[in-house]
Each structure stands twice: as C-alpha cells, then as structure tokens.
C-alpha cells in the first residue's frame, strides 16, 4: 500500500490519500479522541502525540496537528497507523455510523426552496473544491438572509477560511440566490 500526502492551504493540516475508499458516503470530523468512539481509525490516530483533529472524506484523511509539533516527526507515525489499519482490513467507522456531518433542516417552510437551492450549490460547486483542499463545509441554517456554514477538516482554523467564506462562497450564493445577503461561520 502506498499512501500519498498533499499539502493543504492550512499549514497545521496534511491530507493523506491511502489509494482506497475511506468513507462510502459523507464525511466525519473529530476534534478529540473522546468524540471518536465510533471510529477505531480516528482513535488510533489521536494516539499519535500532536494529532488534534481527524477528518475523513470519501478517499482521503486530513490530519490536524498541534502548533508545537512538526510534520517530519508526526508523518511517519501517521502513515504507519493508516497503513496498518487498512492492510488489516479494519473498518474506519463502526456501529453503522458512516457519516457524521450532514445538513441541518430548514427552520421554516418558506425557506424550503431557498434552502434546497443553497444546499444544491454547496454540494455541486463548493464541497468538491473544498474537498480538494482536504476539508468540508456543512450547512447549518438559513435565517433572515444569512447562511450559516461550518468548516471542517483542513478548512477548520485555516488562515484563508474567512476569505473563502466571504469572497468565494458568499459571492457565489448571492449571485445565484438573491435572498442570501451574507454567509457566516457557525460554531
């Protein structure tokens, strides 16, 4: 098994491509070992000292490190953990939990059509581009013209995430959906 790595716009994250499917559908994002109880792989990755975040996409894993650790020290341990996990045929997720992230439901009936348009644009135009950088974006709501989104993986804490939200996603959504006036990051 050969695992490729790619830099991301976030210097604290690195994208690992194991050359096989990671998740069948959706994404999963863990910011602590305690939150990763349904992912044996994420738990093992958190055992590597300095790992502070684990994100699973369809065919990649994004790892976030603490500021006091260097990639040249962490990378061999992470590669070994990922390689051993996949070659042993272990599951990435257990208990039927394939996808952690999802879309929040519309808050009002009047917003259903607008929310559907927002979700479709995010799924077709934004999420594939964000996944290229090792992250994901999750819709959290639409209220009074404001779209609330949550950045995950390499995008969480990325120095350019605010610019991505404001200059990229907000401008695109406002262009296609006049009811959208602003995009904000949600916690």
Distance from N terminus to C terminus (CA atoms, Å) equals: 37 Å
Strand order across the biggest sheet? 1-2-5-4-3
Kindly report the average pLDDT value: 85
Range of helix content:
25-40%
Largest sheet: 5 strands, antiparallel
**What's the β-strand tally?**
8
Assembly state here?
Answer: single chain
The chain-level structural class is alpha+beta
**Number of distinct helices:** 4
Q: Give start-end ranges of low-pLDDT stretches.
A: 97-110
Beta-strand percent range: 15-25%
- Order of secondary-structure elements: EEEHEEHHEEHE
Q: Compute the CA-based radius of gyration.
A: 17 Å
Spatial shape: elongated
Domain Scaffold protein Nfu/NifU N-terminal: 3-89
Family: Belongs to the NifU family.
Protein name: NifU family protein
InterPro entries: FSCA_dom_sf, Nfu/NifU_N, Nfu/NifU_N_sf, NFU1-like, NIF_FeS_clus_asmbl_NifU_C
């Amino acid at each position: 098994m050969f695992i490729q790595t790619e830099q991301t716009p976030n210097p604290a994250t690195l994208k690992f491509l194991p050359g096989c499917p990671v998740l069948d559908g959706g994404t999963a994002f863990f910011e602590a070992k305690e939150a990763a109880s349904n992912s044996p792989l994420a738990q093992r990755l958190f055992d590597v000292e300095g790992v502070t975040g684990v994100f699973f996409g369809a065919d990649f894993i994004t790892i976030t490190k603490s500021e006091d650790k260097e990639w040249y020290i962490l990378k061999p341990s992470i590669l070994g953990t990922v390689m051993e996990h996949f070659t042993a045929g272990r599951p990435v997720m257990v208990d039927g939990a394939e996808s952690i992230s999802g879309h929040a439901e519309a808050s009002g009936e009047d917003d259903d059509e607008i929310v559907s348009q927002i979700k479709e644009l995010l799924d077709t135009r934004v999420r594939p581009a964000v996944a290229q950088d090792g992250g994901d974006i999750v819709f959290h709501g639409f209220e009074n013209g404001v779209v609330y989104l949550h950045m995950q993986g390499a995008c969480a804490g990325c120095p350019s995430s605010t610019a991505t939200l404001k200059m990229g996603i907000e401008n695109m959504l406002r262009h296609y959906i006049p009811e959208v006036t602003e995009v904000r990051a949600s916690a």
